[in-house]
Amino acid sequence: MTATPDSWTERFLLGITKEGSTEQQFAGITSEITGLDFGEKDIESTPLASGGRVVRPIPMTIESVTLKLYPVTALLDGTGIVQQFHPQVTDDSSVPVVVENTITRKKHKIVFVWSTTLPATASTLPTLGSPSYRVQIINAYMTRYKPSFDNREFTAEATFKWAPFNKAGTVGNKREEYTSGSAQLAAATTSVTAWA
Q1: 27: exposed, middle or buried (Cβ count in 10 Å: 0-12, 13-18, 19+)
Q2: Which listed residue, 41, 59, 127, 140, has the most CB atoms within 10 A of its CB?
Q3: d(Cα 132, Cα 164) in Å, to the nearest integer?
Q4: CA 84 – CA 99 distance, rounded (Å)
Q5: pLDDT in the model for residue 110
Q6: Is 185 a member of any domain?
C-alpha cells in the first residue's frame, strides 16, 4: 500500500455531469483551480446591558469553485464547456455545432479526485491500496463562463455555485472523502441531484 503524500499537488481528475447528459472528463492540474470557496459559517454577537454578548449564528453562505479550462470545441465530450453554460434544447453533437445563448439553467454534478494512482474517470473508484481524496458536489449551477486569450491561447474560466444544503436542510450538497487505501471509497453518486 502506498503512503498518503505530504500534499495533493499537480494532477487530478475532474468529472462534470450536466442534468440529462453523461459525465465529461477533464484531466486537471491542481493549480488550475483558480477559486475554491466552501462557504462560511459566520457568527454575530449582540451586546447585552450587562456587558455580555449573545452569539447568533448566521446561515452558511453559498459554496463555489472556479476552474481554468482549455476548450478546443463546443462539444460535450470533455473538449468544450460552452454547452454547460448555455444548455441547448437538445445537446448539440453534430458538426457544425451551434450554441446559442439561452436562459436555461441546469444542475450539475462535479467530482474531483486526487489519488496516488488516478482511476480511469473521476467517478471510477480509485485502485484499492491507493490513498485518495475525493470531493463530490451535486445540485451545482454553472454561473459564469469567461473566455480569454491570456498568454495567447484560448482558455475559459468556469464558475459553479451551489447551496450548502437541500431545501429541508437535512442533506448537504457537497461531500469530501478520504481513504488511506486500506479501504475502498464508496461508489460515486450517479445522480446530479441526490446521493444515489
Answers
A1: exposed
A2: 140
A3: 23
A4: 10
A5: 96
A6: no
CB atoms within 10 A of CB 136: 22
- In this prediction the pTM is 0.89
pLDDT in tens, 186-196: 899 999 999 98
pLDDT band at 151 (very low <50, low <70, confident <90, very high): confident
Beta bridge partners of 43: 57
Count of other CB atoms within 10 angstroms of residue 46: 9
Of 174, 168, 145, the closest CA to residue 64 belongs to 174
Let me know if residue 191 belongs to a domain: no
Please state whether 148 falls in left (phi above 0), alpha (psi between -120 and 50) or beta.
beta
Closest residue by Cα to residue 18 from 107, 79, 94, 143: 107
